[in-house]
Amino acid sequence: MANHLQKISHDRINRYLKNLELGTEVLWENVKEEIETTRDGYLIFDDTVMNKKYSRAY
Predict the structure, then answer these.
(1) Residue 54 lies in a domain
(2) What's the CA gap between 32 and 10, in Å, rounded?
């Protein structure tokens, strides 16, 4: 999503979603207008966390 929204970073989106604790239905209602649909495309909502070398807990 951050790739399509030029003024919003990936980290900012993650912090927003973490603080709101939205369900997938509510999330979809809020972002579906921003999604570019393609015939071969798909969107996956996944709550997997992958540690990064320089990540920190706030």
Answers:
(1) no
(2) 17
